[in-house]
Amino acid sequence: MTACMLVDGVAAAQVSVLDRGLAYGDGLFESIRLVGTVAPLWSRHMQRLAEGCVRLRIPAPDPAQLWHEALQVSRGMPASVLRITVTRGPGERGYALPASPQPTRVVAAFAPPPVAAEAYAQGVRLRVCNIQLAEQPLLAGIKHLNRLEQVLARAEWNDPAIAEGVLLDSHGRVISATMANLFALVDDEWLTPSLDRCGVAGVARAEVLAACPQARIGELTLVALRGASEVFLSSSVRGILPVRSLDERSYAPGTMTRQLQQHWRDLGFSMEQGG
Amino acid sequence: MTACMLVDGVAAAQVSVLDRGLAYGDGLFESIRLVGTVAPLWSRHMQRLAEGCVRLRIPAPDPAQLWHEALQVSRGMPASVLRITVTRGPGERGYALPASPQPTRVVAAFAPPPVAAEAYAQGVRLRVCNIQLAEQPLLAGIKHLNRLEQVLARAEWNDPAIAEGVLLDSHGRVISATMANLFALVDDEWLTPSLDRCGVAGVARAEVLAACPQARIGELTLVALRGASEVFLSSSVRGILPVRSLDERSYAPGTMTRQLQQHWRDLGFSMEQGG
Predict the structure, then answer these.
(1) Does the CB of B157 have a partner CB in chain A at under 8 Å?
(2) Is A81 on the interface with B (CB under 8 A)?
(3) A25 in contact with B, Cβ within 8 Å
(4) Across all residues in chain B, what is the average pLDDT?
(5) B43: which DSSP letter?
(6) I need a labelling partner for B116 at 20 to 30 A (CA). Which of A20, A105, A144, B22 fits?
């Protein structure tokens, strides 16, 4: 718990019990990788946060103010992960929107999670989760605070050798990992699942799609994923992670995965993160 | 904001920014009507909270301790609504469950929401919401903190003449109102929707089902609801509310609704709440 935190711009470690973020998960968050005082994907994070605010009808925070606060909380940290949380703010009991919402803004910096160099070099092991994501188009894509499905999914396994779980929707379509998006080379075509009905549209996914115009958003079945010739995960916090196995199926990191790891280094992420 | 509050047994108005209740909506709550120092449905609330804790794998709080704290926060209030919130407690970044969870317990008392006497006598007006509830059997029934769907549903209308919105699932089946359960008399049979795939199983609904063994849990289509001869809402906070209209369709409060309002009074709820 060595985070440095600001709540509405003031050094604080607490929020009101009446905050709707706590009461209903009524808000949004971003997890942002910083390298010193640079956040290579900052504008994509701000774009997704703004879209989430529109979707949830929460007044959007000022990105310049958030950046100022990001620099404050991460001061002196060579690398950090910023968590920005924006909620609809305090409210009385009941679901109705407050007439004059006063959003709460939390900016906190954490030490980056340790990722073994081997994970970037040889890849990570995945399993398929039992939980199936519910389909709610009105909440799909944005990074809101209603994350019980991800909590339950991550609670399905303890084996530290398994880095991530693959999440399917109720029709058995592959959606993502629990905290990363997923790309697969299927029949010589790069595919990442559509996130119109569930899942979170990651900023790293957006960066991959921009860097690889040949990658396509579409439907990815579990059978197709198992048959893929190359698979990687994209995460704003962890970067590009090759997938070495999914349950009994093995994959080898290929050209595209290595090119994207290089792209991540070119963006300014550290060697360690980029692979 | 005139609530009296205890956080983990201590008078406080704030929780940690790192609490997983705020970070992920990783917790549960109960809204409990108190009449002086009596909570007629207390044991049903404790039963649902315990079931939610099992489902989410959160160590359950001690009901005796909660009751002690409930009396503390509601002291001097002739009537109140208690909100008990139980979260998985503080956590580091990431969805994985903490190895040694320290759940957070918030007990707060609020003034009851004003309900016009006319609402109990003549009934309330409903509309059908546009949002369709997503189906997640692993979260259905329990009163968890992931409530963005209800927030979006309640944000669909501003007309103060409309008291509630009817929520459907993605198959068009009626599930509930935004903050109450729903019963309808269809072809001489009392029906309340099954909540196995979405919705919250209200404690007032459980009390109604216990008091009316002839009521059946089943599928309720919107067509059947529109064609019903009698409809009422059940709420642990508001009691039994007749429904006088759903969009253009009108209903008249009937015998069962009046009997249940009397049952609510017999349980010890005030005349005002019971009707």
Answers:
(1) no
(2) yes
(3) yes
(4) 95
(5) H
(6) A20
